[in-house]
Amino acid sequence: MRSDDPHRPEPPDRDPAEAGAPRPRAEAPGADPDPHAVPAWLIGRWRLLRAESPLEFAPEVCMEFRAGGRLLYSFAVGERSQVESLVYQVEGNVMRTDNPSAPHVVETHFHHGEAGVLVFDFSGARAWFVKEE
């Protein structure tokens, strides 16, 4: 709508539905990296090396981090291997995992430790994983 007041600036032409919508951030060369990006070193299969008490992992735990936020979590059940399909998201040094078939989000800190191990910190109790080649 045009104003008859010549001193009043014209509002930009905008769809009213967009009035409160966040604007997409322009990505410029040299811009900060995406905080949700998965570090390249994380992609692959990781086997549990050891865990501090009180963590109780099932025997032969492995986590296979895949692109697109897919995670295969496997462990031994008797003589068989059980595999759970999970999803994950990374934000900085925090990983959120969830099981779409029985939703329950778990959030933990992680980092790439000495000798290339993957270290999870579950509120003070740590677990170390080694990458399988």
Q: What can you see in these coordinates?
A:
It is a single chain. With 133 residues, this protein is an all-beta fold. The chain has a domain at 40-131: Uncharacterised protein PF14869 family, DUF4488 (Lipocalin, Beta Barrel). 0% of the residues lie in helices and 43% in strands. It has strands at residues 44-51, 62-66, 70-77, 80-91, 94-98, 106-112, 118-122, 125-131. Strands 1-2-3-4-5-6-7-8 form an 8-stranded antiparallel beta barrel. The model is unreliable at 8-28 (pLDDT under 50).
Question: What's a concise summary of this model?
Answer:
The chain has no helices and eight strands. It is an all-beta fold and 133 residues long.
Attribute tags:
133 residues, mainly beta, globular, Lipocalin, 43% strand, eight-stranded antiparallel β-barrel
| CA-atom Rg in angstroms | 23 Å
- What is the CA-CA span between the terminal residues? 65 Å
Q: Which parts are unreliable, with pLDDT below 50 for 5 consecutive residues or more?
A: 8-28
The succession of helices and strands, N to C, reads EEEEEEEE
**What does the main sheet amount to?**
8 strands, antiparallel, barrel
Count of individual beta strands: 8
The fraction of residues assigned to DSSP E strands is 35-45%
Assembly annotation: single chain
Q: Which of globular, elongated, flat, extended, rod-shaped describes the shape? A: globular
**Named CATH architecture of the domain at 40-131:** Beta Barrel
Write the CATH fold name of the domain at 40-131.
Answer: Lipocalin
Overall residue-averaged pLDDT value? 82
- CATH top level of the domain at 40-131 is Mainly Beta
